[in-house]
Amino acid sequence: MPGNKVSKQKPCHHCKSRPASAPPDTSTIHYEKFWLYRHCSSVQQRDRQAQKAGQLFSGLLAMNVVFLGSAFISSMIFNHVAITLADVWILLSILKVLCLCWIIYYLLGTSRQPHAVLYRDSHAGPIWIRGSVLLFGSFSILLNVFQIGYSAILIQCKSRVEIVFPSIEIFFILTQAFFLWHHSKDCVQVQHNFTRCGLMLTIATNLLLWLLAVTNDTIHTEIESQLREVEQRFEGKAPFSHPYLCNETASCTCPNTTICKVFQKGYILLYPFNTEYCLICCSMLYVMWKNVGRRISDHHVPHIKPKFRLQGVVFGPLLGTIAVIIGICVFMMYQIQATGSAPSRQVFVIYYSYYIVLLPLMSVGAVIGTIIHALEKKELDTLKNPTRSLDVILLMGAALGQIGMSYFSIVAIVATDPRDLLNSLILSHSVLLIFQNITQNVFIIDGLHRQPFIAKEEMKEKQDHEAYDQRGVNMLELGQEIRKVSLSYIHNYSHLSWKRRALREISFFLVLCNIILWVMPTFGAHPVFENGLEKSFYGYSTWFAIVNFGLPLGVFYRMHSVGGLLEVYITA
Fold it and tell me: 100 and 191 share a domain?
C-alpha cells in the first residue's frame, strides 16, 4: 500500500487533465510499501521490491480466477449434467459485479485522490484502439440485446438466467468502455496493490468471457439441431440431439416470425465482435496494470509526436483499394452461395485463389520493408515501453491461431489427396499463410522498435505553433500558412526519400490488405470449416474445437496488425 509521501509543494488535485506529452509535476512521490520488504535500507529499493511483489500477488489472483472459470467451462463441455451453462453464467455474473464495483470505486475514489495520476503514458491507449473498444463494445451491446429478445420469445423453454446474464453484460460493457476511454493512459500512484488486483480481476473476467464465447455457441447449435431434425424426419430417422442443449430442444424452436429470425440472425452476425471486444479490453487493461506505480521521466516523453498524414503515398492505397474491392466481390459471391445452400466447389476455388494471389504480395512487401529497415540509419528505441512490449506479445500470440490451423490443414491434405485441384489450393493457401504471418510480424516488430522520423516540416510547424502562442495570429498570416501547407502537400511526394516513401507505400498497402482479411472471416466466410476436408479427416467435434480456438485469434491478429502497421506508417 502507498506510503512515505515526500512533498514540498502541493500540485493540482486533478493531474490527469495534463496533456500526455507534458511532463507533470514530480515534487510528490508515493513510494510503495510491502510488509515482506519493510526492512530494506533504501526507500527506492523497497519501492522496487514492493512493486514486484504487488505484481506477483495480483497475477496469482488472476491465475486462480482463470483456472476456476476454465474448470467450470470445461466441466460444462464434458459433463453438461453436473455443470450447466447457467452455472457458468452465474459465476461470470458474480465476477462482473465484483469488477463493476472496483471500476466504480476507481472512477469515484482512486482517480480523484490528490496526486493519484501524476503521469500519463503517451503510448498507451492510442485513439485507434480506444475507438475499437467503442465500436466493438457497441456491437457487443447490440448482440446482448438480440440475445435478450431471442430468449424472451422462447421464454417457455429458456432459463431466466439467459435474460439476466446479457443484462448484466450490457452494464459491464458500458462501464468498462467508459473506464478505458478516459483512464487507459493513467499511471496510478496511490493504492497500488488494490488497483493491480482490480485490474487483474477485470482481465481474468474478460479472458473467461472470451473463452466461453469460443467454446460455446448455443444459438448456432440450436439452428444446426433444427436443420438436422428436419432432414432426419424427412428421412424417417430419430431426431438429432446435442449435449449442449436441453432435452426439450425440439420444442424450443424459433417461431416462424420475422422478429425471431431477426434476433437469431443478428446474434450470429454480431457474435465475432464480442470475442474481439474481450481481447482488446484485456490488452488495454494489461498496459494499465504495467503502468501502476510507474514514474515517467522527461526523456520518456516525446516532445514532438509524429502525426498521421496521407502525403507521399500513391501506389500503396491504389493497390490496397483494388485488393479490397476484389475481396469484397469474392466475399459477396461466397456469402450468396453459403446462405442459399452449401457452397459449390467453384466458389471455394475462387476464394482460395484470391488468397493465393494476395498473400505472396503481402509477404514480398513485408520482406522488402524489413530490408529497408536494415538499410536505414535510424537508431533503435530501447526505452521501456509496456505498450510496445504487449504489441509484440499479442502479434506473436495471435498469429499462432492461423499458423496452427494451417499446419492442421497441411497434415490433413498431405495424408489424403494433395493432387486434387481444391486440395492443392488449400495446401498452397496454408503454406503461404504461415509465411505471410511470419514476414509481417518481423516487419511490424522491427518497425515498432525504430525511432520515429521527425520531418523538418513538423519541426517547423511546432516552432510556428510556439511562436503563435507567444504572439497572436492575424488572418493574413493564417492565409499564408494555409498556402504553405497546400504547396507542401503538392510537392511532398517528390521530396520524400525513397526509403521513407517505400515504407509508407508498403505499410498502407498492408493496412488495407489486413482490413479485408479481417472483414471476410469476421462476417461469416469460413471455408476452413465448410470445405469439409479437415472436418472429415479430424472429425466434427475436434475440428470444430480447433476452428473455434484458431479463428478468433486469426481475426484478432488481422485487427491488431492494422494498428501495428499504422504505427510503422506514422514513424516512417
Answer: yes
